[in-house]
Amino acid sequence: MVLPGSVGNRQQLFQKLEEMLVVPEANEEHQPFALILVKLDHFRRYNLTKGYRAADKLLTLFTQSLQSILRPQDYLARVGNAEFVLLLAGIRHEGFANLAAAKLFETLQNSDDSEQQSLYMQAHAGVTLFPEHATGVEDLMKKAEMALESARHQLEPFAIYQDEDEVSEGFDWGIQNDLGHAIELDQFELYFQPQINLKDGKLYGAEALLRWSNGDKGFVRPDVFIPIAEKTGQIVEITEWTLNSALWFLEEWCRQSSPIKVAVNISTKMLSEPDFGEIVRNSIALYGVDPQFLTLEITESALLEDMSSSVAILEDLRQLGVNVSIDDFGTGYSSLAYFKGLPANELKIDRTFIQYMLENQMDQHIVKTVIQLAHGFDLEVVAEGVEDEQSNEFLKQIGCDISQGYFIAKPMPTDDFLAWVSSNYAGFKLA
Ligand code: G
Ligand code: G
Ligand code: MN
Questions:
Q1: Sequence-distant contacts of 231-235: CB under 8 A, at least 24 apart
Q2: Mean pLDDT, to the nearest integer, of 376-387?
Q3: Which of 18, 53, 274, 367 is deepest in the core (most CB within 10 A)?
Q4: How far does residue 426's CA lie from ligand 3's centre (Å)?
Q5: What is the model's pLDDT at position 120?
Q6: Are 190 and 209 in contact (CB under 8 A)?
Q7: Sign of the CA dihedral 20, 25, 28, 29?
Q8: Does this model's pTM top 0.70?
């Protein structure tokens, strides 16, 4: 599509940046500027649900909003589907960068169109300063990405790059240190998200999802701290905690009502720990629960990485009755042959296929095929990320076994989960 005014593309942006980054003569100074990377979240979804014409119109309006804050010496480029970079000349300090970014979001928010406004709420930006934060094109862009990520995590519209964002190869010492005390300070909590059997509408089980609230620093997402815990080895202790908490809950549950399955996520690194099997068996013994009510969710990529030893451990656990589920299926590179050697009895189709399935023929086709394929290997199929009734109904029609997602319920703290079950479960049926 053609956007209004002068908007560069990725290549032109890089050229422009190269020009702006030339090393100054001995007696001259760098001409400072700020680079703002802006992304619209969920634009793909908007495209699919509202149609391309509406999406193009929105993008045009969005571009105009961005242009409205530009001065003649500034520059705007579109670097991705719904991703833009603004270069603001002469901005030397964080304070000015803050003002510029704040102005940008103010402009976005004050749009008259309510549809636009709601989408703008989902815009995020990351800001880097030249030469303060970086002096190379790649570096400036990379750090803007990091700042944007940290804005997302802090639930802020934008963030200016901070040295703390630079965790040498994603390594965050602050988090590592805090993680060391998280268990003793009782900062972890398990949330439970229900899973519904599509055939009879009954409660099938729940996935346990770890939450960490790190004192004053607030809530830290598992996809941030789990990779760090994997690197430091803290993952072993964390997994033990998670397993024990999930089984403690399960044992309580079993005493009060008919048992359900509880699924625990097992990270890649944990799976290759030699005493992983032992840890799981110990937890089961400690709480005396029937192993058939425990499910271990293993990501597809974990199994691809280190098949032989992990498979042996999983086989032992499977013998014991523990369920093995292949999580995030479709995001890795599995082949048919891969199923053959796997001791799994459940497969979870990744939510990225489920989310656009109704609008996207290709996704729909993949979902149907995966269900057939999985059934051919005697695997039960869970659809994750089911967000609306139509998707749920569609999945039921095409023979999917189990449904999980915001349509049914979000992950909830234990008490809320129990309350949710008691108000919905008796005769809980989805159309
Ligand atoms: O709700 P959600 O933001 O929890 O989960 C984000 C990611 O973190 C998911 O990929 C999920 O599998 C992972 N995750 C959540 N809880 C745990 C856990 O207890 N252990 C591991 N290894 N991963 C988890
Ligand atoms: O990787 P894993 O499948 O374990 O991740 C589970 C993640 O999916 C958690 O972050 C959980 O909060 C999230 N989740 C659960 N249901 C939905 C949903 O309906 N939509 C979206 N977008 N995320 C969901
Ligand atoms: Mn999972």
A1: 231/171, 232/176, 232/179, 234/176, 234/179, 234/180, 235/267, 235/269, 235/270
A2: 96
A3: 367
A4: 26
A5: 62
A6: yes
A7: positive
A8: no
Q: How far apart are CA 223 and CA 268, in angstroms?
A: 13
Largest CA distance in the chain: 80
Ligand 1 pocket test, pick from 188, 210, 350 with the greatest ligand atom count within 8 Å of Cβ, gives 210
Residues 6+ away with beta carbon under 8 Å from 157: 101, 105, 123, 124, 125, 151
Q: CA 312 to CA 380: how far, in whole Å?
A: 21
pLDDT band at 148 (very low <50, low <70, confident <90, very high): very high
Residue located via tokens 């509880």: 262
Q: How far is the CA of 242 from the centre of ligand 3 (A)?
A: 13
Q: Which residues line ligand 2 (CB under 6 A)?
A: 193, 209, 265, 327-328, 351, 384-387, 405-406, 411
* 29 or 157, greater pLDDT: 157
Please report the pLDDT score of residue 334 as a whole number: 65
Q: Are 327 and 304 in contact (CB under 8 A)?
A: no
Q: Which atom of ligand 1 is nearest to the CA of 297?
A: 12
CA distance 19 to 75: 13
pLDDT-based confidence at residue 169 (cuts at 50, 70, 90): very low
Alpha-helical regions (H) of 154-197: 173-182
- Tokens 């930006």 locate to 125
Ligand index nearest the alpha carbon of residue 263: 3
* Most ligand 2 atoms within 8 A of CB, residue of 406, 408, 412 to mutate: 406
Ligand nearest to the CA of 237: 1
Ramachandran class of 321: left when φ > 0, alpha when ψ lies in -120 to 50, beta otherwise: left
The residue to mutate among 384, 386, 406, having the most atoms of ligand 2 within 8 angstroms of its beta carbon, is: 384
